[in-house]
Design brief:
The complex is a heterodimer. By secondary structure, chain A is mainly beta. Chain A is 0% helix and 49% strand. In chain B, 0% of the residues lie in helices and 52% in strands. In chain B, the strands form 3 sheets. In chain B, strands 2, 5, 6, 10, 11 and 12 form a 6-stranded mixed beta sheet that branches. Classes of the chains: A mainly beta, B mainly beta.
Chain lengths: 112, 112
């Protein structure tokens, strides 16, 4: 039982490049979330999904897109990376509502 | 909109000493309150949460927190700190996980 896993662990991009971050969970959770964490700030919600085939915007969605084609996977895409998107990205999942969230180990992204 | 303030960016305590981490929130209704811990290079782990009922909440690893509505606070406490408690601690508030706001975090250093 791996819990929540994230791929890759670290990535360097040049401005304008695109990439996709993968989050996978094996707990059969309905809800999945993408956060970013920046120095001196708490986590901020980018997008979330309440079930397969659904997505919704969080607090800071601009510049990101997401997809939830399979229940166990939640993809975060950057179409044209900007230095402001340099951050640590965390994925989380839970059974829903106010249930406990389980977090992945994070993906560190550097945009030059 | 809800918000969270963690007044202390960094706290140092000696091993075996007591600990209190402060959290103040702003929220228009009865809040859901959470404390998370993040060890270096790891994702967040839930320590405890408050939804309703008893205002003194027990969590994992010997932590507890007290909800004080009159002071808009949800401070985290531990009677005797262990070296393994060194980490970053985040307070969060929200109606549910889809609209949660995190504080900026308090980094805890434990002296031998």
């Amino acid at each position: 039982n791996a819990g929540v896993t994230q791929t890759p662990k670290f990535r360097v991009l040049k401005t304008g490049q695109s990439m996709t971050l993968l989050c996978a969970q094996d707990m059969n959770h309905e809800y999945m979330y993408w956060y970013r964490q920046d120095p001196g700030m708490g986590l901020r919600l980018i997008h979330y999904s309440v079930g397969e085939g659904t997505t919704a915007k969080g607090e800071v969605p601009d510049g990101y897109n997401v997809s939830r084609l399979k229940k166990q996977n939640f993809l975060l895409g950057l179409e044209s990376a900007a230095p402001s998107q340099t951050s640590v990205y965390f994925c989380a999942s839970n059974r829903g509502g106010s249930e406990t969230q389980y977090f992945g180990p994070g993906t560190r992204l550097l945009v030059l | 909109a809800q918000s969270v303030t963690q007044p202390d960016i960094h706290i140092t305590v000696s091993e075996g000493a007591s600990l209190e981490l402060r959290c103040n929130y702003s929220y228009g209704a009865t809040p859901y309150l959470f404390w998370y811990v993040q060890s270096p290079g790891q994702g967040l782990q839930l320590l405890l949460k408050y939804f309703s009922g008893d205002t003194l909440v027990q969590g994992i690893k010997g932590f507890e927190a007290e909800f004080k509505r009159s002071q808009s606070s949800f401070n985290l406490r531990k009677p005797s700190v262990h070296w393994s408690d060194a980490a970053e601690y985040f307070c969060a508030v929200g109606p549910d996980n889809n609209d949660m706001r995190f504080g900026a975090g308090t980094r805890l250093t434990v002296k031998p």
